[in-house]
Write a structure and sequence with these properties.
By secondary structure, this protein is α/β, with parallel strands linked by helices. The chain is built from six helices and nine strands; from the N terminus they run H-E-H-E-H-E-H-E-E-E-H-E-E-E-H. Helix 4 links the parallel strand 3 and strand 4. The chain is globular, with a radius of gyration of 15 Å.
Length: 193
Amino acid sequence: MCGLTRPEDVAVAVDAGADAVGFVSHPGSPRYVSLPAIAELIVDVPVLTVVLTVELGPAAALTAVEVTGALGIQPYGARAGDVAEAALAAGIAVLYPVSRPAEISAAPLGATPLCDTPDEIMYGGTGRVFDWSTLRGIEQDFILAGGLGPDNVTDAIRRVRPWGVDASSRLEAAAGVKDPGKVAAFVQEAKSA
């Protein structure tokens, strides 16, 4: 689950059974959280914690992970491949964003591809549904994102069989504020699919 901005939202996600929680460190996002604030949000979080970075080089991205204490990184931008390689070499989990199925096999070895639906402004969290039909038959593990919510995650999992699912904007009551009911329903639907 990505785009968490408040301690109560982190608690709701973890209590609902989310396997990972993500935090956006890009100031251009409505879900932006500063690196020091992310560090405070993830203290004692018992699941995978991921910091989302945009247009950072490897050194700056690894510093973001170090400052926050996150266990993983989701790098976006022109240097995402370089960031992924550096993070993997440092033993950091990498969720590697892709927007087309052909990019899945090009993800750095050891990274987990994350299929999402960016647009001209947002790198993710657009609420647009990924074209599931293009993912049938993919044998490599990947995470499906893009327009997932409690109402469609079961169908997505049954049709596409991803290794995992991720959601952000469709679980919100307002930009950057998660709806506890939607969060709980999403996790329940995903785990029962």
